[in-house]
């Protein structure tokens, strides 16, 4: 049997309908936008594109509808060299759509309609068991139905792949999923939701113990402009904490920066690199993603990253 290699992402594809505006509206308020674009997005597809641009062999297991957005998303993934054979087309269903507003500081607000993503079923993932068994890394997020995430986590774990779980957008997951995941990626808000804490950054030792109590050994908590914290289980379950600084950037649009980080970590782990080195390079990739508009449209290639550092 050949050694496991490459990355399988099981996740979402969305058409990102994006308006830029000076400031985000408050509830009940209408504000004027000054630019509009439809771009390829969705957390799963974003993570896949980030990893494939860094050189990973990549398969994306996902679902689109039989509509113009579905065509656009599959074509975009194809252009990036992603294996799209495992993207199913669901007749009579709209492709996932995200309505995104980006303000002058690059901050965003996003509403996602899952569409076909919500129809990606466990049997779609089980059909890809061989592909998953051949992968070094299986990367998951929570824009797919929970039962599908459970099936993919189980398959990846059984096959001995590194199972990465991005708990975004946050929802509670069964203990089995956390136990089968090798690496959890969360931002500070998702960490707080999982651990039931107000601010996980106030006491990292307690935060690390909270993850251990949930059966999670390795975690990266992303902190936006403050970088990230890598938490790794050490001997006798004593956690090792490694703060990773953010790479300097001038922020234009933070949409999909977390996905760029996750995809970059997946790429590094698939090559056998350690988690701390992976997080350091992912910080550079995410900072480059923040410097231009859009999610996938802003992700760098390997040569761009190498020229940047
Ligand atoms: O994380 C950014 C992504 O979230 C966007 O591309 C949008 O599609 C939503 O899924």
Strand order of the largest sheet: 5-4-1-8-9-10-11-12-13
Number of helices in the DSSP assignment = 11
Strand content: 25-35%
Number of DSSP strand runs = 13
Average pLDDT over all residues = 96
What percent of residues adopt helix (DSSP H or I)?
A: 25-40%
* Poorly predicted spans: none
Described by strand count, sense and barrel closure, the largest sheet is: 9 strands, mixed
| Anisotropy-based shape | globular
Helix/strand structural class: alpha/beta
Order of helices and strands: EEEHEHEEEHHEHEHEHHEEEHHH
Bound molecules: alpha-D-ribofuranose
Compute the CA-based radius of gyration.
18 Å
The span between the termini is 37 Å
Concise structural overview:
This protein is an alpha/beta fold. The chain has eleven helices and 13 strands. The mean pLDDT is 96.
Explain what this protein looks like in three dimensions.
There is one protein chain. The protein has helices spanning 43-53, 68-79, 122-126, 129-134, 146-159, 175-180, 188-195, 204-213, 257-270, 275-290, 302-308, and strands spanning 7-10, 14-21, 33-41, 58-65, 87-90, 96-102, 108-113, 137-141, 162-166, 183-187, 218-222, 228-233, 239-244. The chain is α/β, with parallel strands linked by helices. The strands form 2 sheets. A 9-stranded mixed sheet has the order 5-4-1-8-9-10-11-12-13, with helices on both faces. The model has no long low-confidence stretch (mean pLDDT 96). Bound molecules: alpha-D-ribofuranose. Alpha-D-ribofuranose (RIB) binds at residues 12, 14, 16, 41-43, 46, 98, 110, 112, 143, 255-256, 258-259, 295.
């Amino acid at each position: 049997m050949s050694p496991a290699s490459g990355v399988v992402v099981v996740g979402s594809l969305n058409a990102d309908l994006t308006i830029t505006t000076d400031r985000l509206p408050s509830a009940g308020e209408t504000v004027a936008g000054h630019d509009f674009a439809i771009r390829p997005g969705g957390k799963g597809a974003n993570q896949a594109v980030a990893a494939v641009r860094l050189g990973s062999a990549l398969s994306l297991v996902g679902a689109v509808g039989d509509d113009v957005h579905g065509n656009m998303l599959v074509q975009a993934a194809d252009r990036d060299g992603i294996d799209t054979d495992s993207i199913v087309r669901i007749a009579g269903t709209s492709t996932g759509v995200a309505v995104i507003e980006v303000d002058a500081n690059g901050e965003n607000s996003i509403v996602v309609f899952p569409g076909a993503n919500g129809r990606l079923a466990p049997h779609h993932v089980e059909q890809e068991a061989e592909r998953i068994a051949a992968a070094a890394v299986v990367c998951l997020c929570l824009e797919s139905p929970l039962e599908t995430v459970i099936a993919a986590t189980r398959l990846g774990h059984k096959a001995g792949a590194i199972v990465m779980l991005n708990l975004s957008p946050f929802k509670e997951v069964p203990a089995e999923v956390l136990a089968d995941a090798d690496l959890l990626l969360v931002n500070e808000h998702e960490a707080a939701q999982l651990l039931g804490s107000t601010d996980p950054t106030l006491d990292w030792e307690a935060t690390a113990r909270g993850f251990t109590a949930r059966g999670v050994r390795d975690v990266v908590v992303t902190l936006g402009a403050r970088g990230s914290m890598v938490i790794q289980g050490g001997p006798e379950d004593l956690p090792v904490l490694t703060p990773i600084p953010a790479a300097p950037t001038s922020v234009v649009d933070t949409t999909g920066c977390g996905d760029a980080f996750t995809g970059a970590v997946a790429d590094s782990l698939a090559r056998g690199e350690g988690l701390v080195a992976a997080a350091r390079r992912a910080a550079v990739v995410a900072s480059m993603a923040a410097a231009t508009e859009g999610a996938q449209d802003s992700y760098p290639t390997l040569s761009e990253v190498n020229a940047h550092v």
